[in-house]
Design goal:
This protein is of the alpha/beta class. It has eight helices and eleven strands. Helix 6 packs parallel to helix 7. It is elongated and about 55 Å long.
Length: 233
Amino acid sequence: MTLRVAITRAMPDAERTAERVRAYGAEPVLAPLLTIIPCGYDTNTKGAQALIFTSSNGVRAFPDCRGARDKIVLTVGEATAETARAAGFTDVRTAGGDVRALADLIVASLDPGAGKLIHIRGTHVAGDLTTALGGGFQIESRIAYTAVTVPKMPAALGAPWNLILFHSPRAAAAFLSFGSPGAGDLACACLSPAVAAAAGAGWKRVIVSPAPREEALLEAALGPTASPAGASA
């Protein structure tokens, strides 16, 4: 029996996740619980030594990189770095982890006196980069998009599925807001402990990724040592 995996992240990232799920021999079920809405914001990057993107949505919300092509770009993970390179940025560096790893990358590779950092982000972010840096750098936040919960439960979640993926606390909270259909008999896989906390305890099994990266999440949920929904924790 093919494992059916519900993917709750917003489009178009959900489609990339679906490709990876298929590579594990599972069947993806696209069920985005969030919608990305661009916001108008200041796109002037004059005087900035680097741009920071903590999601691919931020890169996609940056209207045209031509005037900033040579700016240093720092990303929290490789998926966002790939999106930045595809957009035309030429100097892209990735922390390959979480906000703490991103702060360490900034301290190791940038000079606080060489100019401000512009963080192009959504209204909700995982972790506080300014606090993680502990001072020294000037960071300007530019709100480029917002993620809103879909108005009703996606129809795809009404069909049978075995495992649901949560990439963010907001997606998990959105699922719970629709009454957690079938959660008690099924499994969820969460990108981090914070996401797992948002998903709650009413699951037959909760899988927590050992690292805040999608490849680690999918390996934990679908890899050779993972068990189908319903197995003991």
